[in-house]
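Possible regression after last week's pipeline update?

I re-ran a chain I had predicted before the update to compare outputs. Posting the input and the new output here so someone can diff against the archived version. Not blocking, just want to make sure nothing changed silently.
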Amino acid sequence: MKKVLISLAAVMVLLAAGCTPKNQAAGGSAGPRGASDLKIVLILPGPINDQSWNATNYAGLVKSNASLGTKMEYIENVQAPDYESTFRNYAERGYDLILAAGTQFDEAANKVAPSYPKTVFCVVNGMISNGANVAPIFPREYEASYLAALIAGEVTKNGQFATIGGFPNDAMEKLLDVYEKVSVDIAKGRGISGAKAVRAYANSWDDVSLGKQMAETMINNGADTLFVYANQVGLGSIQGAREKGAKFIGFSGDQTVIAPETVVGSVIFDFETFYVWAVQKYIDGTLDGNTVHEAGLKEKIFVPVYTPAIPQNVKDNVEAGVQKAVSGGIDLTALFAKK
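New output (post-update):
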C-alpha cells in the first residue's frame, strides 16, 4: 500500500509539473498571482508631461493599470549614465517585468538581463533581444511615419520638407526614409516640381532650444513643412515653426494641442492599446525572449488627428493610403535607404 501511495504521489508531482503555465518559467514568472500582485515598473528617459514620447508611454501605463488591474509604477527622467544601475535596482528588488521606453535602453537591458533570469526586460521600441528574458516590443514606426507623410504631402505648398531625428539609429533612419520618400512623391504628384526633403539629427532627445534653432535654420533655407521625432527637441521645433509661419506634422502624441495653427495634423501612437497588448502577453506567458514583438497599422496602434485646417478630401486620401498599406498594396520596407 505504501508503494502504491508513493507511486501515486510521484505521478501527481509529474502531472503538476507538466501543467505549469508558461509564464511560471524562469524569465517570465507571473506564477499563480493575479495581475495586481505583479511587480512592474516603467523606466522613462524624460518627463511624463512632455506631450510626446514619454507622455505617450505613460498613457500606456495608465491604461494597462485600469484595464488589466496591474499596479505598474514608473520612474521618469532617467539619463543614459544611469540606465544599467536603474535596471539592476529594480531587478534586485524582485520586479517581475521591467519596461524601458526607448531604443536607447537596448544595450543596457541586454547587458543586465543575464544576471536576473527571473525578471523580464522589455524595451519599448527595442530592436535587440539576446536572451531568454529579453523581450522588446516594437511599434513599426515607419508605418506611423508613412501616415504622417500622407498628411504632409497634401499640406505642403512648396514641396520643401524638413525632418529632424533625435539620433541616427536604425529605426529612426528607416522611419525618416519612408516619410521623406512618400511625402515628396505625393507633392510631386500634386504637380510641385523640385519637391525634396532635407534631414538633420539633433543627437539629443531633450534640448528644446536646439530644436528651435534647427527648425528656424531649415525654414530659413526654404522648408515650409516640418516633421520632428526627437521628444522635447520637437517642442522647440514647434515653437520655431510657429514663429516662422511653417506647418508642422506632429508625431507620437497629439501635438496639435500645443499649437493648432502650426501643427495641423498629428499621428498618435496608441500606446494604450500597445501596452495592454504587451502586458497581457506577459501575463499569458507569451512575451517570449529572444524575440522582437511588433505591431503597427494593422493592429491599429497609429491614429491620425486633424485640425480644421485639414479638408475632408485630404482625410479621405490619407485613409486610402492606410488601407493600401494594410492590404499589402505598398511595401514600405522597399523605401528604406540601401546601406
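Follow-up from reviewer: compared with the archived run. The longest strand covers residues 263-269. Marking as no regression found.
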